[in-house]
Amino acid sequence: MPKTIHRPEYSLLRELVREERVRAGVTQAELSVQLNRSQSFVSDVERGVRRLDVIELRDMCQVLGRDFLEVVAEFEARTRRDLGRLTPSKRAGKTAKVR
Asked: Superkingdom, according to UniProt (predicted)?
């Protein structure tokens, strides 16, 4: 199984994190100050260059005024909606081998 940062679910999480930030009217720079991190940290998370762990996600939710469990529930709903129709191998990020 590929690293989580390369799985389709992670793309959905990145999109959700960015949407939550934009919805809150917060720039990457403003969020980074509140998190005591660099602006590049937020950018790297949103671009998929850097993996976001659950504690960092929780911190972001708090700064953005969002309930962590509601954001996780939204992530789960999107995952089921958007990835539920994929085959198990595509959900895991695997591709068919060409022979």
From this structure: Bacteria
Q: Specify burial of residue 14 (Cβ count, 10 A radius: 0-12, 13-18, 19+).
A: middle
pTM: 0.80
Measure CA 97 to chain center: 28
Cβ pair 66, 20 in contact under 8 A: yes
- pLDDT at 95 exceeding the cut of 50: no
Say yes or no: domain 4-84 is CATH 1.10.260.40. Answer: yes
User: Average pLDDT, whole number, for the chain?
Assistant: 88
Per-residue pLDDT of 56-92, as tens digits, reads 999 999 999 999 999 999 999 999 999 886 545 554 5
- Can you read off the two tokens belonging to residue 21? 């930030």
